Each structure stands twice: as structure tokens, then as C-alpha cells.
């Protein structure tokens, strides 16, 4: 997914990508990890430019609405990760906060087996743990 597609999708939802919002977005997309809004704010400030915390909140809210960000509730904090608009699951490292996308999926078929429960519209499945490089660091 490139910036043009993201821009298009946000535009359809009446969200205009200003220069400031674009800077936050690019940092968020490239990081491939999850952030709380405050963490993302710091991250952007260090690397790009000064942006308001409100800008970060607004962008994360808009991205979540159109399905380009997923919030995770971990230890009472909400972290967000960027998501391409293709069905996937996540592996989230609780130590370095990297997020890996898993595009392989059998969950829908598994649920379709038992039609008595109801009809599935969509599903979510995420894994939380420690990534390989964090595990190796320990030794
Ligand atoms: Zn995702
Ligand atoms: Zn890790
Ligand atoms: Zn799935």
C-alpha cells in the first residue's frame, strides 16, 4: 500500500492529509511497530518535525476508522499499529513492540464449520509474545 492509496481511502472518508498529518503517517507506516499516541508523538518529534499531540490523535482515529490502524489494549494502555487493507493477523512483541503481519489465515473456515452459532461477518486473531531477536538478546 503506498501513500496514494492511503490518501485516497482517507479522502473518501473526508479526512484530508495535511503536511503535518502526512509526516506522522509516514513515520507510523515505516516504523512497523505499535505506539501509544504519546509514544508516536515523541517518535515523530525526534525524527521529523514538531507536530501537535492532537494531530497524532486525529490521525490514529481516522486510520482506525478506515481500517488502516488496529488498536491493542495491553496492560490498560492502547497501542496502535499501521495495517495494510488486506486481511491479516498480528504477532506483537511485548518487549520491543514490533508488529509482524501474518497473512495466512484459516480462521474463517474453522468458524464456518459450525453454522449453528451464527454467520461470521469478520474475525480478529492476534498473537502476543516475544520476537526471535528479543529472545536471542537474553542469552
Ligand atoms: Zn495489521
Ligand atoms: Zn521483540
Ligand atoms: Zn483471518
TrEMBL record:
Cofactor binding comment, as recorded: Binds 1 Mn(2+) or Fe(2+) ion per subunit.
Residues forming coiled coils: none
GO terms for biological process, alphabetical: negative regulation of DNA-templated transcription; regulation of secondary metabolite biosynthetic process
Gene3D superfamilies in the record: 3.30.1490.190, Winged helix-like DNA-binding domain superfamily/Winged helix DNA-binding domain
Residues that coordinate or bind Zn(2+): 93, 96, 131, 134
GO MF annotation terms: DNA-binding transcription factor activity; transcription cis-regulatory region binding; zinc ion binding
Annotated residues for binding of Fe cation: 87, 123
Top-level taxon of the source organism: Bacteria
One Pfam short name: FUR
Entry keywords, A to Z: DNA-binding, Iron, Metal-binding, Repressor, Transcription, Transcription regulation, Zinc
Cofactor(s), by name: Mn(2+); Fe(2+); Zn(2+)
PANTHER family: FERRIC UPTAKE REGULATION PROTEIN (PTHR33202:SF7), ZINC UPTAKE REGULATION PROTEIN (PTHR33202)
Family recorded in the similarity comment: Belongs to the Fur family.
Protein name: Fur family transcriptional regulator, ferric uptake regulator
Amino acid at each position: 500500500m503506498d501513500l496514494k492509496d492511503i490518501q485516497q481511502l482517507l479522502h473518501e472518508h473526508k479526512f484530508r492529509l495535511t503536511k503535518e498529518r502526512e509526516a506522522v503517517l509516514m513515520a507510523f507506516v515505516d516504523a512497523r511497530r505499535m505506539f501509544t499516541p504519546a509514544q508516536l508523538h515523541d517518535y515523530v518529534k525526534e525524527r521529523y518535525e514538531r507536530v501537535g499531540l492532537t494531530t497524532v490523535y486525529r490521525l490514529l482515529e481516522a486510520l482506525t476508522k478506515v481500517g488502516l490502524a488496529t488498536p491493542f489494549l495491553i496492560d490498560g494502555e492502547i497501542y496502535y499499529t499501521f495495517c495494510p487493507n488486506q486481511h491479516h493477523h498480528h504477532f506483537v512483541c511485548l518487549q520491543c513492540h514490533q508488529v509482524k503481519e501474518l497473512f495466512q489465515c484459516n480462521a474463517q473456515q474453522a468458524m464456518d464449520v459450525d453454522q449453528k452459532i451464527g454467520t461470521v461477518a469478520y474475525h480478529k486473531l492476534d498473537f502476543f509474545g516475544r520476537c526471535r531477536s528479543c529472545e536471542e538478546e537474553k542469552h
